[in-house]
């Protein structure tokens, strides 16, 4: 059984650098972004003392008590293909319990099901289909089924998804594979041909209108944030403060310079769209986006997405991840527009194993659930 002990951020970075990829939520830099939580890097070591796994743990304190929810977003980074997950999770849980955890929440980075673009489009068009799960998937992964079965056997509790989004990280995401099944990189032309006619037309229109897409520096975060606040007002969500993005820029780029990239799309000097991309090894994510209400006809949002996709291809990434979608395919649901925008890229809907809790102190865990329900998560 591997042993578990705290490791330094440097050891954590070195281990992640030895892997093809890992979630950016499991990087040491993310601990700096989530500075309101106590954090710790953990390492798994085999019998020879070699590092075999790592995790970023965020400790969320219970009000008025010195007890914590130990949260490992999209982690830990261990061998999830193991037939003996208890050997990995048991020493981790024992350590977290010693740290004052009343419960542990993990997010296994394991795919359970996939649906093609065509399947999602057919589901949206079918009035009898309201949820993605009603469509037989293109693939059910044996690895995902094994993880889910083992977690149930070990007493972990799956966190339900309400309205399509989990309380923590999204269980359903939309991704564009950037490699063929044989591992060869897809070309820009191949990815472009996979997009729907509207996406291809909008990318062409942006180029014809003279939309210019460039990488930005830290000094451009203010311009991004102004547009993001405008987007939040238009689309009715609560924006994060500028300081959050400045911290994110500094912390993630300190881990690796290519980890955080700010993109800006301008038309005749006007900022029409701006996005934040994150990359860890072979996995590239579209993280945040903003767009102007004016000049929507120049299609800045499509132009900036295409620039990010091309950059991911150039970097040799295996996947471009557009992050969360809801499970709803109901044409009357306001969330379905987001899915339709992402489906146009020609990728696939992907379901992960979701988030799982292990209560260590049941009365405190129950109190925590009540507390979260009252404050809305």
Please describe what this structure looks like:
This is Peptidoglycan bridge formation peptidyltransferase VanK-Sc. Keywords: Acyltransferase, Cell shape, Cell wall biogenesis/degradation, Peptidoglycan synthesis, Transferase. Belongs to the FemABX family. About 1% of the residues have low confidence. The protein folds into 2 domains: 126 residues, Gcn5-related N-acetyltransferase (GNAT) (Aminopeptidase, 3-Layer(aba) Sandwich); 212 residues, Gcn5-related N-acetyltransferase (GNAT) (Aminopeptidase). It is α+β, with helices and mostly antiparallel strands and 377 residues long. It has a 9-stranded mixed β-sheet with strand order 7-6-15-9-14-13-12-11-10. Strands 1-2-3-4-5-16-8 form a 7-stranded mixed β-sheet. Helix 7 crosses helix 10. The protein has 12 helices and 16 strands. A hairpin with a 6-residue loop joins strand 3 and strand 4.
Overall structural class, as computed from helix and strand content, comes to alpha+beta
Tell me the number of helical segments per DSSP (H or I, 4 or more residues long).
Answer: 12
- Largest sheet at a glance? 9 strands, mixed
Q: Could you give the order of strands across the largest sheet?
A: 7-6-15-9-14-13-12-11-10
β-sheet strand percentage: 25-35%
Question: How many strands appear in the DSSP assignment?
Answer: 16
Please tell me the overall pLDDT: 94
What is the class of the largest domain in the CATH system? Alpha Beta
